[in-house]
Amino acid sequence: MIKDERWEKVYSFDDSPYLMEILTELRNKETDSIAFRKGLVKLGRFMGYEIIKTMDIEKIKIETPLEETEGIIVKDRRNIVIVTVLRAAVPLMEGLVKVFEHARIGIVSASRGKAPKFEIEMNYIKIPQITPEDTVIIADPMIATGSTLVKVIEEVKKYGTPKRLIVLGVLAAPEGIERIKEEFPEAEIFVTKIDRELNSKGYILPGLGDAGDRAFGAP
Ligand code: URA
C-alpha cells in the first residue's frame, strides 16, 4: 500500500504485483465479462484485506484445547457498512463481503449524464443507519470526475457520522480525487491505481473502459 503524496489519506496498491496483475487483466480489452467480473471480485476481496491492515486490533486471551494463549480481534471488521454504487460495484461488493461478512449493505443507484455537465441522477437509495463505531466503505470501481461519489457521500452522511469513511475504487483520475477531497477532506480513498487523467467524455485514461458495460456485457 502506497500513500500518495499529493493528498492526505489517499492510498494505491502499485506495490502489489498480485493486484497489478488483476488490474492488467481488467484493462485488457480482450478480457471477457466473466473474467472481468471475477477480477473485480478478487480486487474487492484483496483490497478488503488491505483495509483490515489499517484497523485497530485488540489483544484477547483465549484457551486452545491445551492451554491459554493470546490472540487478537479486529473489532472494526464487525462494524462495517458497505455502500454499493450500482452497477459496476456489485462484483466488488461480492469480494468485500468475503472479508467483511458482518457488513450491513447499502445500495445506491446513480447515473452520470453526458459531457460537458455530467449531471448525476440518483434514483434508488437504501442505506442502513450508521453509528459512530461504523466504518463505511463506499464501493465504486471508477473514480472519474468524482461527482457521483460526492453525491453518494452527501446521501450517506444523512444516515449518521461514521468512525471512518472509506471510498474504495479500482481506478481513479486525479481530478476525481481532488473533487472528493475538496468536499470531504476526511474521506480515505483506496484504489488499486491512480491513472493519468480524464478524457473529454469523462473516461479515465489509460483506464479500462466502461466498467459496468464490461462487467455485465450490456451497454
Ligand atoms: N466510469 C467508467 O466505467 N469508466 C471510466 O473510465 C469512467 C467512469
From TrEMBL:
Pfam families: UPRTase (PF14681)
This protein's record includes keyword Glycosyltransferase: yes
Sequence ranges assigned to domain Phosphoribosyltransferase in this UniProt record: 15-217
The entry's keywords: Allosteric enzyme, Glycosyltransferase, GTP-binding, Magnesium, Nucleotide-binding, Transferase
Catalysed reactions, as listed in the record: UMP + diphosphate = 5-phospho-alpha-D-ribose 1-diphosphate + uracil
Cofactor detail note: Binds 1 Mg(2+) ion per subunit. The magnesium is bound as Mg-PRPP.
Cofactor(s) needed for function: Mg(2+)
Protein name: Uracil phosphoribosyltransferase
A single GO BP: uracil salvage
Regulation: Allosterically activated by GTP.
InterPro entries: PRTase-like (IPR029057), PRTase_dom (IPR000836), Upp_A (IPR034331), UPRT (IPR005765), UPRTase/APRTase (IPR050054)
Family that this chain belongs to: Belongs to the UPRTase family.
Residues that bind GTP: K38, G39, L40, V41, K42
UniProt binding sites for uracil: I204, G209, D210, A211
EC number of this enzyme: 2.4.2.9
Family annotation (Gene3D superfamilies): 3.40.50.2020
NCBIfam families cross-referenced by the UniProt entry: PRK00129.1 (NF001097), upp (TIGR01091)
GO MF terms, alphabetically ordered: GTP binding; magnesium ion binding; uracil phosphoribosyltransferase activity
Binding-site positions, 5-phospho-alpha-D-ribose 1-diphosphate: R87, R112, D140, P141, M142, I143, A144, T145, G146, S147, T148, D210
Superkingdom of the organism of origin: Archaea
Pathway terms, separated by semicolons: Pyrimidine metabolism; UMP biosynthesis via salvage pathway; UMP from uracil: step 1/1
Record's function text: Catalyzes the conversion of uracil and 5-phospho-alpha-D-ribose 1-diphosphate (PRPP) to UMP and diphosphate.
